[in-house]
Amino acid sequence: MKKNEPNWLVVLRTVMPLGLSYIPIGLACGVLLHAAGFNHLLTALISVMVFSGGAQFLIASMLTINAPMTTIILMMFFLELRYALLGSSLSRYLKGQSLPFILTFAFSMNDENYAVNYLKFATDKHWKPSQALMVEHYSLLFWTVSNIIGSLIGSALTINLQVVDFALTALFIYMAIMQAKSRLIILVAVLSGVLTIGFLVLMKSTLGLVVSTLLASLTGYFIERYLLAHKPESHLLYKVHDPTGQQPWKNLTSRAQRGFSYAISQLNE
């Protein structure tokens, strides 16, 4: 940091890599939200109010299959519940702050700016809560502007909803693969898929997605808890890797990325 550098510029330098990384995925999110029926104003509002790539892609996906609002809200609730844990880990750095500050900070937090702020608080003793809040606002600005531009691009293209479905499927497959870090997680993912099919058939409603997700998550939690307490050497707890030492599922991840990129490039056809 340069001496006497303005505070806003210090924070901007810190958050710039994150902001730039938001641009491509934000553009794609804006395009898909427009295809799902959101106009430019609604896209801007949902970007500010939700501020979560995973949740916004989920909303677009659920709307394309005409899921009821109750199901969408419940899915978002369980998807975003992790922020209760993330926020609690930052609470020690925000002691003495006013309630309005805490509420504003919580409203603007997401996975990425949480990581930036947690790292800064842990490594920089001069990092202030006000600077952490600026990180959140800068990242929110990058995300919202990218979504709006994506919506404008989407309005200029003829969107094929079949391509949108493919793009969303590729995205969620990629997200699932990135979480496959142990055999137990893979087992829970397979169980979740089987339960989802079963409950969708039985309930004839997308509410089956919520029920299957909860049951699979609880099952995975109790299995992991039991294994850690009684069988810590279980193969289910082993991390997934390959003999070459490369990242797990590297080839599948690359294919999912290419599939999503191809779908976005074909939206104007």
UniProtKB/TrEMBL annotation:
Annotated transmembrane regions: 15-34, 65-85, 135-153, 184-203, 209-228
Membrane topology: Multi-pass membrane protein
Coiled-coil spans in chain: none
InterPro entries: Brnchd-chn_aa_trnsp_permease (IPR011606)
UniProt keyword annotations, A-Z: Cell membrane, Membrane, Transmembrane, Transmembrane helix, Transport
GO biological process, one term: L-valine transmembrane transport
PROSITE patterns linked: PROKAR_LIPOPROTEIN
Principal subcellular localisation of the protein: membrane
Example of a GO cellular component annotation carried by this entry: plasma membrane
Compartmental location: Cell membrane
Family indicated by similarity: Belongs to the AzlC family.
Cited PANTHER family: INNER MEMBRANE PROTEIN YGAZ
Protein name: Inner membrane protein YgaZ
Species in which this protein is naturally found: Lactiplantibacillus plantarum subsp. plantarum
Species lineage: Bacteria, Bacillati, Bacillota, Bacilli, Lactobacillales
